[in-house]
Amino acid sequence: MHRFLEDVGEEFRFLVEQYGFTETKTEPTRVRYSSSDVIIEVTYSDRGEVDVLIDENPPSHRFQFRLYLRLFYTAVEKGLGYGIAESEDAMARELKHLSSYGEPLLTHDQDVFDRLRTVKWSEIPR
After folding, report:
1. Which one of 56, 64, 116, 120 is least enclosed by Cβ atoms within 10 Å?
2. Positive or negative: CA dihedral 47, 65, 7, 90
């Protein structure tokens, strides 16, 4: 997808403007943002899959943003389907969920990170 970097830059601008993140790594299919407490990495696969990974800074336990959604916003996670972005609009919609639902992650809510450190996908009903 030729607009991956542009779409991530547009949709994640709020990380820099509102939460003090900086873009720390950019590759054609991977963008990383870091704050003093949190690392967010967005990847785009050859199959059209968009994935958002979260970790503490310094790194301690990396997890998919979808795991967080499944645990705390089950209906939203169900609505994502398989995470395949068939179009640029679909990818932009996928990326917007972090700004809509990710406040506890962006502000490093320690209770949320502690819970995500122990939960497994198979433990959460779908």
Report:
1. 120
2. positive
